[in-house]
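How a chain folds remains the central question behind the approach discussed here. In the encoding step, the backbone of a single protein was reduced to a row of integers, each denoting a local shape. We regard such an encoding as a compact summary of how the chain folds. The sequence in question and its structure tokens are set out directly beneath this paragraph:

___
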Amino acid sequence: MEKETVPGGSGSAMLQSKEEEEPKMTDGKKKMKVMVAIDESAESFNALKWALDNLYGIVGFTPEAGGGGGILTIVHVQEPFQRFVLPALSTSSAFYATSSMVESVRKSQEENSAALLSRALQMCKDKMVKAESLVLEGDPKDMICQSAEQMHIDLLVVGSRGLGKIKRAFLGSVSDYCAHHAVCPIIIVKPPKEQHE
């Protein structure tokens, strides 16, 4: 279980990985590298649950079945804090955050990330799946795709919020972006029907 924070600013930083080598072989089979992206949403945890139930629960994939298991990486991307804020209903100039305010926001982000990853890792532990965690900083869409490419991920799993066409056009969709830009196969897990309605 390894937690690494890589600053990204606008998402241009390179992911620093301690192990660049290919996963070790078990019985002549390469271990599959799976990445699940999580955030505060229930949909992202639904995607993790789906991966644990459907990928790690199948015959031939678990270490007990001789499939060698697989490497599960849970990634969370923090958006960088902007030091200036433009007041919404004012024509005055921008407000510049003080150092203490920036430090307070960063500490809050770190606590939030730690809580999310702790919850995700506990889900993995409950299913007896070994996982590593990674915290990145930058635009989630870009950083997820970049890290998946740089880590040579075999399968990316993301949750879908089920946004309609209009909301997706204005807000953008991480899952939609990843579907078009990730270099590996991707599974987009839709919310359960009762949650979606």
About this structure: The chain has a mean pLDDT of 75. The first strand starts at residue 5 and ends at 6. The CA atoms of residues 54 and 61 lie 10 Å apart. The chain has one domain: 5-11+25-83+93-196.
